[in-house]
Amino acid sequence: MKKIVLAVCVCVLSFALVNGPVFGAVKEMKFSHDNSEFQEFWTNMGNASADEVGIQAVPTDYETEVYKTKVKVDLPTGRAPTVFKWWFGYRALELLEAGLIADLSDVWNEVGDNFAPGLKEALTIDGVPYAIPFLISYWVWYYSKPVYQKYNLKPPKTWDEFMSQLALLKKNGVYGIGNTIGKSRWTSFIVFQEIMYRVDSDYYNKLMTGKAHYTDPQAQQAMKIWKDMLDKGYHAPMDLDYVEDIPRMMKEGKIAYAPFGDWYGGIMQQQGLVPDKDYGVIILPEITPKGKGAIILEVSPLCAGKNSGQLDLAKAWLKWYSTSKSASDLLWGLRFATTTQITPDIIKKDDPVLAAEMEMLKKYPTKLIRFWEATPVEIVEHAVNELNTFRATPGDPMAVLKSIEAKAKETWPKYKVKY
Amino acid sequence: MAARRPNRENAFLYIVPALIFVLIAELTPVVYTIYLGFMEWDVINPPKWAGLKNYLRVFSTPDLLNALKNTAVWVGGTIVFSVGLALVIAVLINQVRLKSVFKAIFFIPATLSPTVASIFWSRVLVSQKGALVSIFELFGGSLQPLITNAKFNTFIMIGIWTWQYLGINLILFLVGLETIPQEPIEAARIDGANSWRLFYHIILPLLQPIMLLVVANAVINSIRMFDIPWVMIQGGPGRSSETLAVSLYRESFLLFQMGLGSAIAVVISAFSFLASYRYLVSIGGGRKR
User: Fold this and answer.
1) pLDDT tops 90 at residue B87
2) A114 shares a domain with A66
């Protein structure tokens, strides 16, 4: 009998040593991301999930480019992260096609009601919902309250009104648009995107999915408008840093507008700006009637590594993450309003600008995916370089469009799209 | 007593641990990189054979040809400024009493990492609230963005590299100058050689071993130049200021074309080997003598 008891004890202990504590155990799972500024937040979330559902998410952060490579290399192996932050659209497609990320239908079936309609579809490829949203961000135009007060400006109701404002500001030595390429190559697509979908939102969608061409009249019109703005000197100096310089200059009344996803509010606050005192937010009017009611959406998804060996853990944790308690932690921790439980009333007192934006968004039913994720990465990277050059030395807009078009022609067949 | 002949077998045994480490840690990645240069690999799907396609792309894609051109500009600029200027300054301060003070002044920037130097100069050169524009503003002037200007940002970055690396070359040249025997110099002076002839016909040839080391080092460093163009402007605007090393990074880790990135790595290594060949031969030759 003693021998049997001893054998059982040895087995239990061995199992515990290999798999962690057996009874009432907290299980650990790997969580990877590329935002060092969020590491503390994720650590806290990991502790919270350990307390509440017995799953300790252990976060590790990497520099973005290193992160992309590490995740891609690890995903096919047993080193795959259990849950990881990624990018949606075409940046997720290659992972899904290679069978490296898990189908999260179970999670959506259980907690899907916590998210706004349309989100599941945005995070679904070929009928497979592959992610849960970490960040849902709409692209708006931040404006400087000191500039608005000094020049008695009001949110423009038409595009012409906006252009008149830019002209007035230029005359008074104020930079109209805070868009730079100094320390951030990617930011060169922003103004192009913002103009293009306001010209024709349906065309924008078609262009992103390989059903329209960069040399079409709509893109030409967008580039012409942008070049005109650049030639007239409406942009802030291109060597500024968008994290430090632009918020500071908006506070000082030297820059009027900055187009960014609404995550930029968090950056503005980190830089010491107070919402509704130093900055506000508007959504610019459409340029043609075909651009009406549209807004750019950016989603940062959380995916589950199929080969991590902890898929059940990943799903259980993502379900926990989608509860109202976690959404509340996310709001107060990072100022991200992700689930439907976060209403404008909840955030009004703390961040009236974000609350006002949430009200404004009700008038914009057409959600368009951000250029960065909406189209294949090969086209995006090439376009970003071309637009970067154009931003620095505005030359022939048609040459830029032809170059991107050539890249699109080369790329789309790889994605089985007849272009 | 007869001298004991060295036992070659025993000597070999002593270097075996280091040899194994070198083979595993250094040779394996080299062989793997050469192998990947002949493949197409996006990290996710298995590598596919591509033959010489990647190498042909290095020498035919406009962006990569531009990177080759920029790398050549870096090499030329480094030799002229970082090496040439260091030589001139070394000769000028060699006989000066406060030589050690000058040495310290020129050497201080070399203690910074290129990344830190790049961040420092980015803040100096930025057109708003930068250190340089603040000086300009004192005199009522202003400053256009410099580092985002594709026409001359490579030259600005070469200037920053010169600022940082000049001190090391200077020290090496001063060491070289101090080891030059005085007899031929004095003999030339007695024969009536002026300063230029003395420098050109006596000092420069005697400095050749150090010169080889400095030039080889400078050329290799500029061929693999990454930190400054990446940290300051990410090879931009567009891809205008990319060096080969920046292209390697972009193709490998932004575009996940590991095959092309590896081919660029092999090309960089080949150029570096060619640049150091003369120096390596001179070391080998010296030993034979």
Assistant:
1) yes
2) yes
Q: Which domain holds residue A54?
A: 27-136+304-353
Subunit contact A385:B129, Cβ cutoff 8 A: no
Q: Bigger pLDDT: B157 or B199?
A: B157
**Chain A residues with CB inside 8 Å of B249's CB?**
65
Do A188 and A289 fall into the same domain? yes
B→A contacts (Cβ < 8 Å), by residue, are: 42-45, 63, 122, 125-129, 144-150, 233-234, 236-240, 249, 252-256
Q: How close is the nearest chain B Cα to the Cα of A21, in Å?
A: 35
Q: A389 CB near a chain B CB, below 8 Å?
A: yes
Q: Do B147 and A182 touch (CB under 8 A)?
A: yes
Domain B44-113+154-288 has CATH 3.40.50.150: no
- Structurally, chain A folds into a number of domains equal to 2
Q: Are A274 and A377 found together in one domain?
A: yes
State pLDDT tens for residues B18-60: 889 888 888 999 999 999 999 999 888 899 999 999 999 999 9
pLDDT recorded at residue A232: 97
Q: Both A315 and A202 in a single domain?
A: no
Contact: A245, B238; criterion CB under 8 Å: no
Q: For the whole model, what pTM was predicted?
A: 0.84
Q: How far is A189 from chain B, CA to nearest CA, in Å? A: 12
Residue A1 belongs to a domain: no
Q: Are residues A124 and A145 in the same domain?
A: no
Structural domain includes residue A4: no
pLDDT along chain A (419 residues), means of 10: 58 49 75 89 93 95 86 93 93 90 95 86 89 92 98 98 98 96 88 98 96 98 98 94 93 97 90 96 98 94 95 95 83 77 81 92 92 93 94 95 97 93
Determine contact, residues A242/A177, Cβ cutoff 8 Å: no
- B108 min Cα distance to partner chain A (Å): 26
Residues A117, A210 within the same domain: no
Q: Is residue A168 part of a domain?
A: yes
What CATH number did the domain enclosing A78 receive? 3.40.190.10
Same domain, A45 and A132: yes
Chain A residues close to B239, C-beta within 8 Å: 385
Same domain, A222 and A320: no
Q: Where are the domains of chain B?
A: 44-113+154-288
The answer to whether the Cβ–Cβ distance between B236 and A245 falls below 8 Å is: no
- Residues of chain A contacting B63 with CB distance shorter than 8 Å: 385
